Amino acid sequence: MTSKTPIALTIAGSDSGGGAGVQADLKAMSANGTYGASVITAITAQNTTAVTAVHEVPADIVAAQIDAVLSDLDVGAIKLGMLFSVPIIEAVAKRLADFSGPVVADPVMIAKSGDALLQDAAVGALIQHILPQANLLTPNLPEAARLLEAAEATTPEEMAAQAQRLLAMGPKAVLMKGGHASGGTCTDILVDTSGVIGTYQAPRIETKNTHGTGCTYAATLAALLAQGLELTAAVAAAHRYLQDAIKAADRLHIGNGNGPVHHFHGQWA
């Protein structure tokens, strides 16, 4: 007998520049020892400087992709990224209802370039249909504020308080990511119904090459959860991996804007 191959599925948009979205997810999953499968929700014309076009994949095709993967592959965890529209959110949510593994929901709303990746009308659908099915929600500070219709948190205490409000929307745990905060230290806070169960800190790295950090973080978490890691251990390991990928980002020379992190910093220079 051979040991089971861990498999994670990303349901997200395609980034033609390769730094974020499905492309980043598959790189992160592979770098962390998990086989990555993918469902594409939207095709973006994107590089390191801008998103110049978005083509929404029809919801029935999104559903068909999910059905094809889950009917054949033994998926251990699912990562959700760019869901873009109400029909896509509803199609994804319907299929999550029959999935028993962990779901990591990254509420992708705005690209690093500032371009919208979630329609305004879809925010309510995301809250109604996706958050209650998430084992882990991974918002950055602007995304948390948008979901709560509140000002951005500026302190760890405010981050923890907003995480509790997000928990009331249905996810089992919330990882508040502090990369958008000011100061020399980045702090992430993991919260569940019992309170703060993990705090993860790292020095802020001075680089413009942070395209795809949110996608990479969530995809790594899905990869590690698919391997059977417990949540706090998965977050600690994913946090270390992402920090190392950011530290190595300037070894790459990709594009003229916000370049990607180095997903394979442990494999090649």
Walk me through what this model shows:
Helices cover 35% and strands 21% of the residues. It is α/β, with parallel strands linked by helices and 269 residues long. The strands form 2 sheets. The chain has a 6-stranded mixed β-sheet, with helices on both faces. The protein has a 3-stranded antiparallel β-sheet with strand order 7-8-9.
CATH superfamily: Ribokinase
The SSE order reads EHEEHEHEHEHHEEEHH
How many domain units?
1
Major sheet size, sense and barrel closure: 6 strands, mixed
Helix-residue proportion: 25-40%
The radius of gyration computed from the alpha-carbon positions, rounded to a whole number of angstroms, is 17 Å
- Count of distinct strands: 9
- Mean pLDDT figure: 95
- Gross geometry: globular
Report how far apart the termini are: 36 Å
CATH architecture level-2 label: 3-Layer(aba) Sandwich
What is the count of helical runs?
Answer: 8
Q: What is the SS-derived class?
A: alpha/beta
Strand order of the largest sheet: 3-2-1-4-5-6
Percentage beta strand:
15-25%
- Name the CATH class: Alpha Beta
CATH topology title: UDP-N-acetylmuramoyl-L-alanine:D-glutamate ligase
Uncertain regions spanning at least 5 consecutive residues: none
Short overview:
With 269 residues, the chain is an alpha/beta fold. It is built from eight helices and nine strands.
What secondary-structure arrangement, pairings included, does this model have?
Blueprint lengths: L6 E9 L5 H11 L3 E12 L4 E6 L2 H12 L6 E4 L5 H11 L6 E3 L17 H8 L5 E2 L3 H8 L7 H12 L5 E4 L8 E8 L2 E9 L9 H14 L4 H17 L22
Parallel strand pairs: 1-2, 1-4, 4-5, 5-6
Antiparallel strand pairs: 2-3, 7-8, 8-9
Helix pairs in contact: 1-7, 2-3, 3-4, 5-6, 7-8
